[in-house]
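Quick start: read one record
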Amino acid sequence: MQTQKPTVYILHGDNKLAIREFISKLRQKLGDAQASQMDVQRFDGDSLDFGSLEEACTTIPFLSPRRLITLENAGSVIGKGNREDAFFDLLDRLPQSTALILVDFRNLNPQSSKLLQWAQDHASQSYVRDFKTPKGHDFTRWMTKRCRAVGGEIDPQAAALLADLVAGDTHLAEQELEKLLDYVDRQRPVNIHDVEQLTPFHGQSNVFAMVDAVGQRDGRQAFTHLHRLLEDHPPRYAFSMIVRQFRLLLQAREAIDTQIDPHKVLKVHAFVIDKVSAQARNFSLNDLENIYHKLLDIDLASKTGRVDLDVALDSLLAVLTA
Protein backbone atom coordinates (compact mmCIF):
# COMPACT_ATOMS: atom_id res chain seq x y z
CA MET A 1 0.00 0.00 0.00
CA GLN A 2 1.43 3.36 -1.05
CA THR A 3 2.12 5.82 1.77
CA GLN A 4 0.09 9.02 1.55
CA LYS A 5 2.29 12.04 0.89
CA PRO A 6 1.73 15.42 2.54
CA THR A 7 -0.25 17.86 0.44
CA VAL A 8 0.78 20.89 2.53
CA TYR A 9 4.39 21.71 3.42
CA ILE A 10 4.78 24.51 5.95
CA LEU A 11 8.31 25.91 5.96
CA HIS A 12 8.95 28.74 8.40
CA GLY A 13 11.94 30.53 9.92
CA ASP A 14 14.49 33.21 9.10
CA ASN A 15 16.96 30.91 7.30
CA LYS A 16 15.92 31.79 3.74
CA LEU A 17 18.83 29.91 2.17
CA ALA A 18 17.91 26.61 3.84
CA ILE A 19 14.24 27.03 2.91
CA ARG A 20 15.04 27.67 -0.75
CA GLU A 21 17.40 24.70 -0.87
CA PHE A 22 14.67 22.47 0.59
CA ILE A 23 12.23 23.65 -2.09
CA SER A 24 14.86 23.04 -4.77
CA LYS A 25 15.22 19.43 -3.61
CA LEU A 26 11.47 18.95 -3.80
CA ARG A 27 11.51 20.24 -7.36
CA GLN A 28 14.27 17.81 -8.29
CA LYS A 29 12.05 14.94 -7.14
CA LEU A 30 9.55 15.84 -9.85
CA GLY A 31 11.92 14.36 -12.41
CA ASP A 32 12.85 15.80 -15.80
CA ALA A 33 13.57 19.53 -15.34
CA GLN A 34 11.96 20.67 -18.58
CA ALA A 35 8.83 18.60 -18.06
CA SER A 36 8.46 19.48 -14.39
CA GLN A 37 8.71 23.20 -15.13
CA MET A 38 5.16 23.07 -16.48
CA ASP A 39 3.92 21.72 -13.15
CA VAL A 40 5.62 24.32 -10.94
CA GLN A 41 4.07 27.66 -9.97
CA ARG A 42 4.93 30.33 -7.42
CA PHE A 43 2.69 32.88 -5.68
CA ASP A 44 3.25 35.65 -3.13
CA GLY A 45 0.80 36.11 -0.26
CA ASP A 46 1.34 39.88 -0.28
CA SER A 47 -0.16 40.19 -3.79
CA LEU A 48 -2.22 37.03 -4.05
CA ASP A 49 -5.02 36.38 -6.53
CA PHE A 50 -6.76 33.65 -4.56
CA GLY A 51 -8.64 32.33 -7.59
CA SER A 52 -5.37 31.74 -9.45
CA LEU A 53 -3.91 29.91 -6.45
CA GLU A 54 -7.00 27.70 -6.16
CA GLU A 55 -6.91 26.89 -9.88
CA ALA A 56 -3.20 26.02 -9.72
CA CYS A 57 -3.72 23.74 -6.72
CA THR A 58 -6.63 21.80 -8.20
CA THR A 59 -5.30 21.38 -11.76
CA ILE A 60 -4.16 17.88 -12.76
CA PRO A 61 -0.37 17.59 -13.34
CA PHE A 62 0.69 17.73 -16.98
CA LEU A 63 3.91 15.70 -17.21
CA SER A 64 4.98 15.18 -13.59
CA PRO A 65 3.58 12.95 -10.83
CA ARG A 66 2.66 16.03 -8.75
CA ARG A 67 2.20 19.76 -9.14
CA LEU A 68 4.48 21.86 -6.92
CA ILE A 69 2.89 25.14 -5.85
CA THR A 70 4.81 27.59 -3.65
CA LEU A 71 3.14 30.39 -1.70
CA GLU A 72 5.68 32.74 -0.11
CA ASN A 73 4.63 35.12 2.69
CA ALA A 74 1.79 32.71 3.41
CA GLY A 75 1.08 34.47 6.69
CA SER A 76 -0.31 37.44 4.75
CA VAL A 77 -3.37 35.36 3.85
CA ILE A 78 -4.21 34.65 7.49
CA GLY A 79 -6.44 37.05 9.38
CA LYS A 80 -8.38 38.37 6.39
CA GLY A 81 -11.90 37.18 7.12
CA ASN A 82 -13.57 35.32 4.28
CA ARG A 83 -10.27 34.87 2.46
CA GLU A 84 -8.78 33.09 5.48
CA ASP A 85 -11.77 30.73 5.60
CA ALA A 86 -11.47 30.00 1.87
CA PHE A 87 -7.73 29.41 2.27
CA PHE A 88 -8.10 26.79 5.00
CA ASP A 89 -10.94 25.19 3.07
CA LEU A 90 -8.56 24.86 0.10
CA LEU A 91 -5.92 23.22 2.32
CA ASP A 92 -8.51 20.69 3.52
CA ARG A 93 -9.39 19.53 0.00
CA LEU A 94 -6.05 19.52 -1.82
CA PRO A 95 -5.65 16.45 -4.05
CA GLN A 96 -2.73 14.04 -3.62
CA SER A 97 -1.47 15.25 -7.00
CA THR A 98 -0.62 18.65 -5.46
CA ALA A 99 2.16 19.65 -3.08
CA LEU A 100 1.46 23.14 -1.75
CA ILE A 101 4.48 24.72 -0.07
CA LEU A 102 3.60 27.50 2.36
CA VAL A 103 6.58 29.69 3.22
CA ASP A 104 6.81 32.20 6.06
CA PHE A 105 10.22 33.75 6.69
CA ARG A 106 9.37 34.33 10.35
CA ASN A 107 9.83 31.95 13.27
CA LEU A 108 6.21 30.99 13.93
CA ASN A 109 4.91 30.19 17.41
CA PRO A 110 2.87 26.95 17.56
CA GLN A 111 0.74 28.48 20.32
CA SER A 112 -0.40 31.47 18.25
CA SER A 113 0.06 30.54 14.58
CA LYS A 114 -3.21 29.46 12.95
CA LEU A 115 -1.17 27.80 10.21
CA LEU A 116 0.73 25.58 12.65
CA GLN A 117 -2.45 24.85 14.57
CA TRP A 118 -4.09 23.71 11.33
CA ALA A 119 -1.10 21.42 10.72
CA GLN A 120 -1.46 19.89 14.21
CA ASP A 121 -5.09 19.08 13.44
CA HIS A 122 -4.22 17.66 9.99
CA ALA A 123 -1.03 15.73 10.72
CA SER A 124 -1.54 13.20 7.92
CA GLN A 125 -1.87 15.96 5.31
CA SER A 126 0.92 18.24 6.48
CA TYR A 127 4.67 18.49 6.89
CA VAL A 128 6.11 21.25 9.10
CA ARG A 129 9.73 22.29 9.39
CA ASP A 130 11.35 25.16 11.25
CA PHE A 131 14.40 26.69 9.57
CA LYS A 132 16.18 28.87 12.11
CA THR A 133 19.40 30.67 11.25
CA PRO A 134 22.26 29.36 13.42
CA LYS A 135 23.52 31.94 15.92
CA GLY A 136 26.92 32.83 17.36
CA HIS A 137 29.45 30.01 17.28
CA ASP A 138 26.88 27.76 15.60
CA PHE A 139 26.84 30.15 12.65
CA THR A 140 30.63 30.02 12.39
CA ARG A 141 30.53 26.21 12.50
CA TRP A 142 27.81 26.24 9.84
CA MET A 143 30.04 28.29 7.53
CA THR A 144 32.96 25.91 8.06
CA LYS A 145 30.80 22.90 7.17
CA ARG A 146 29.33 24.77 4.21
CA CYS A 147 32.80 25.51 2.93
CA ARG A 148 33.82 21.86 3.13
CA ALA A 149 30.62 20.76 1.41
CA VAL A 150 31.62 22.67 -1.72
CA GLY A 151 35.22 21.49 -1.70
CA GLY A 152 36.96 24.27 0.21
CA GLU A 153 38.41 25.15 3.60
CA ILE A 154 38.35 28.28 5.74
CA ASP A 155 40.50 29.10 8.77
CA PRO A 156 38.63 29.47 12.09
CA GLN A 157 39.63 33.15 12.42
CA ALA A 158 38.48 33.87 8.89
CA ALA A 159 35.16 32.11 9.52
CA ALA A 160 34.61 34.12 12.72
CA LEU A 161 35.29 37.43 10.96
CA LEU A 162 33.09 36.56 7.99
CA ALA A 163 30.26 35.61 10.38
CA ASP A 164 30.44 39.08 11.93
CA LEU A 165 30.59 40.86 8.57
CA VAL A 166 27.53 39.15 7.12
CA ALA A 167 25.63 39.65 10.41
CA GLY A 168 24.05 36.20 10.46
CA ASP A 169 22.68 36.28 6.89
CA THR A 170 23.08 32.74 5.50
CA HIS A 171 22.31 33.76 1.91
CA LEU A 172 24.91 36.53 2.02
CA ALA A 173 27.41 34.19 3.71
CA GLU A 174 26.92 31.69 0.88
CA GLN A 175 27.68 34.36 -1.73
CA GLU A 176 30.78 35.57 0.09
CA LEU A 177 32.10 32.03 0.64
CA GLU A 178 31.74 31.27 -3.05
CA LYS A 179 33.64 34.44 -3.95
CA LEU A 180 36.42 33.69 -1.45
CA LEU A 181 36.78 30.07 -2.60
CA ASP A 182 37.00 31.21 -6.21
CA TYR A 183 39.71 33.68 -5.16
CA VAL A 184 41.89 30.98 -3.57
CA ASP A 185 40.85 28.52 -6.31
CA ARG A 186 40.16 25.96 -3.56
CA GLN A 187 43.91 25.32 -3.47
CA ARG A 188 44.36 26.56 0.11
CA PRO A 189 42.17 27.52 3.05
CA VAL A 190 40.59 30.98 3.02
CA ASN A 191 42.42 33.07 5.62
CA ILE A 192 41.60 36.21 7.54
CA HIS A 193 43.51 38.43 5.10
CA ASP A 194 41.38 37.14 2.23
CA VAL A 195 38.23 38.08 4.13
CA GLU A 196 39.52 41.55 5.04
CA GLN A 197 40.54 42.16 1.43
CA LEU A 198 37.51 40.81 -0.42
CA THR A 199 34.47 40.98 1.85
CA PRO A 200 32.79 44.38 2.20
CA PHE A 201 30.74 45.19 5.26
CA HIS A 202 27.51 45.12 3.23
CA GLY A 203 24.80 46.43 5.54
CA GLN A 204 27.29 46.62 8.41
CA SER A 205 29.26 49.33 6.59
CA ASN A 206 26.18 51.56 6.62
CA VAL A 207 25.58 50.77 10.30
CA PHE A 208 29.17 51.67 11.22
CA ALA A 209 29.02 54.84 9.10
CA MET A 210 25.64 55.83 10.56
CA VAL A 211 26.94 55.41 14.12
CA ASP A 212 30.04 57.45 13.27
CA ALA A 213 27.78 60.23 12.00
CA VAL A 214 25.58 60.08 15.12
CA GLY A 215 28.69 60.32 17.31
CA GLN A 216 29.74 63.44 15.39
CA ARG A 217 26.16 64.86 15.42
CA ASP A 218 26.19 64.87 11.60
CA GLY A 219 22.51 64.44 10.81
CA ARG A 220 22.86 64.56 7.02
CA GLN A 221 25.36 61.70 6.91
CA ALA A 222 23.46 59.69 9.54
CA PHE A 223 20.24 59.85 7.50
CA THR A 224 22.10 59.01 4.28
CA HIS A 225 23.54 55.81 5.70
CA LEU A 226 20.30 54.83 7.45
CA HIS A 227 18.36 55.15 4.20
CA ARG A 228 20.99 53.15 2.29
CA LEU A 229 20.66 50.43 4.91
CA LEU A 230 16.87 50.43 4.53
CA GLU A 231 17.17 50.27 0.74
CA ASP A 232 19.27 47.10 0.97
CA HIS A 233 17.44 45.30 3.80
CA PRO A 234 13.88 44.93 5.16
CA PRO A 235 13.20 47.37 8.04
CA ARG A 236 13.05 44.61 10.69
CA TYR A 237 16.42 43.17 9.64
CA ALA A 238 18.02 46.63 9.40
CA PHE A 239 16.66 47.45 12.86
CA SER A 240 18.18 44.26 14.31
CA MET A 241 21.59 45.28 12.91
CA ILE A 242 21.32 48.71 14.52
CA VAL A 243 20.27 47.23 17.88
CA ARG A 244 23.18 44.79 17.74
CA GLN A 245 25.62 47.63 17.01
CA PHE A 246 24.48 49.75 19.95
CA ARG A 247 24.50 46.71 22.24
CA LEU A 248 28.16 46.16 21.28
CA LEU A 249 28.89 49.86 21.80
CA LEU A 250 27.31 49.73 25.25
CA GLN A 251 29.38 46.68 26.22
CA ALA A 252 32.56 48.30 24.88
CA ARG A 253 31.91 51.59 26.71
CA GLU A 254 31.28 49.75 30.00
CA ALA A 255 34.55 47.87 29.55
CA ILE A 256 36.48 51.05 28.76
CA ASP A 257 35.03 52.90 31.76
CA THR A 258 36.00 50.05 34.10
CA GLN A 259 39.45 49.75 32.50
CA ILE A 260 38.78 46.28 31.10
CA ASP A 261 40.04 45.30 27.66
CA PRO A 262 36.95 45.14 25.36
CA HIS A 263 38.52 42.10 23.67
CA LYS A 264 37.89 40.18 26.90
CA VAL A 265 34.21 41.14 27.01
CA LEU A 266 32.83 41.30 23.47
CA LYS A 267 32.13 37.93 21.83
CA VAL A 268 32.86 39.03 18.27
CA HIS A 269 35.95 39.08 16.07
CA ALA A 270 38.88 41.31 17.09
CA PHE A 271 38.58 43.23 13.81
CA VAL A 272 35.03 44.25 14.76
CA ILE A 273 35.94 44.92 18.42
CA ASP A 274 38.59 47.45 17.35
CA LYS A 275 36.07 49.41 15.28
CA VAL A 276 33.36 49.24 17.95
CA SER A 277 35.78 50.35 20.70
CA ALA A 278 36.83 53.38 18.65
CA GLN A 279 33.19 54.33 18.09
CA ALA A 280 32.25 53.84 21.74
CA ARG A 281 34.65 56.63 22.74
CA ASN A 282 32.36 59.11 20.93
CA PHE A 283 29.55 58.40 23.41
CA SER A 284 29.18 58.47 27.18
CA LEU A 285 27.86 55.39 28.95
CA ASN A 286 24.72 57.34 29.84
CA ASP A 287 24.20 58.30 26.16
CA LEU A 288 24.44 54.68 25.04
CA GLU A 289 22.10 53.43 27.78
CA ASN A 290 19.50 56.03 26.74
CA ILE A 291 19.84 55.12 23.05
CA TYR A 292 19.54 51.42 23.78
CA HIS A 293 16.39 51.95 25.87
CA LYS A 294 14.90 54.08 23.07
CA LEU A 295 15.60 51.23 20.62
CA LEU A 296 13.84 48.77 22.93
CA ASP A 297 10.85 51.14 23.10
CA ILE A 298 10.78 51.33 19.29
CA ASP A 299 10.93 47.54 19.07
CA LEU A 300 7.91 47.15 21.35
CA ALA A 301 5.95 49.93 19.63
CA SER A 302 6.58 48.48 16.17
CA LYS A 303 5.55 44.97 17.21
CA THR A 304 2.26 46.27 18.59
CA GLY A 305 1.57 48.29 15.44
CA ARG A 306 1.93 51.74 17.02
CA VAL A 307 4.81 52.89 14.79
CA ASP A 308 6.55 51.97 11.54
CA LEU A 309 10.19 51.03 12.05
CA ASP A 310 11.59 53.26 9.29
CA VAL A 311 9.65 56.30 10.56
CA ALA A 312 10.69 55.61 14.16
CA LEU A 313 14.36 55.30 13.19
CA ASP A 314 14.20 58.59 11.28
CA SER A 315 12.73 60.27 14.36
CA LEU A 316 15.38 58.76 16.62
CA LEU A 317 18.24 59.99 14.42
CA ALA A 318 16.70 63.46 14.33
CA VAL A 319 16.82 63.56 18.14
CA LEU A 320 20.32 62.06 18.42
CA THR A 321 21.91 64.43 15.91
CA ALA A 322 20.05 67.61 16.92
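The chain has 15 helices and five strands.
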